[in-house]
Prior knowledge:
The chain is α+β, with helices and mostly antiparallel strands. It has a single domain, classed as Alpha-Beta Plaits (2-Layer Sandwich). 35% of the residues lie in helices and 27% in strands. It has 3 helices and 4 strands.
Amino acid sequence: MFIVSLTYICAFEEIEKHLANHMNYLDRQYTAGKFLASGRKNPRTGGVILAAADSRKELDIILSEDPFNVHNLANYEVTEFIVSKAKPELHFLLE
């Protein structure tokens, strides 16, 4: 399991130009089962993705396809963690 923290490194106007493509990218990753949750930070300085990629290498490939990455609009910080405890509704996350 991975937490991906995106931080914008450009003016928000540039983000807005690529937002629709970014949303399509997210949809593809949800369909593929690689992303479990995502959303914007508050204040709106970036976003967070909860990812279930099989490995860090696979996740790096997935993130390289994000329009925000392709156009160098955000930095990505990735934290891998092992889910060891979860409420019953989230037991599918346990490793």
